[in-house]
Amino acid sequence: MKPEEIATTLTDLFGAEAVNAIAPGSWQIDTPNFRLLVLLSEEDNWVRVLLPIVPVAEAQPFLEQFLEANFDDTQEVRYALYEGVIWGVYQHHSGTLVSADLAQAIARLISLNQAGLDDVFNRMIETRIRQIIQAAKQQGQSLQTTMQTLERFYTEGLLGEMEQTQEAQEQVLAAWRRQLERLWDEI
Question: What pTM was computed for the model?
Fold first, then answer.
């Protein structure tokens, strides 16, 4: 893609008012929800699209899940760490890049931005639930016994919040039950 084709694609996606040429071969797209950067290398042979996701201070507990997502889920885009921020990044050789691929990569980056920590948090929780199931099965516990243990932990205040209402506790336990039932036979 040539610089003018990139500019046209960005304008088609976001409208002329959102696209700002900040330097030759560099664009910034400002929306109420995010700021996207599109950069061409000095030789105009590589396009890089960047979108900040979350400060690394917030992401620190989930760095393993971000790297796993790079391997399993992010497809043509990647998570990257730079200057204290987790970024969504897309890189492609400009000579073989087409508008549809650029638009698809931008859509995926926006999706990562909107998900924020949700996807990596859910991945971490599922890993922990799998560990609980594995430990329960190693101890010879059934699904029902494992669920009773979790209920006891909530009743005794070992799990959950101190100020949690009965209704909130029941909702949490129902979520535990759904996840345990969903994953029990896989492990």
Answer: 0.75
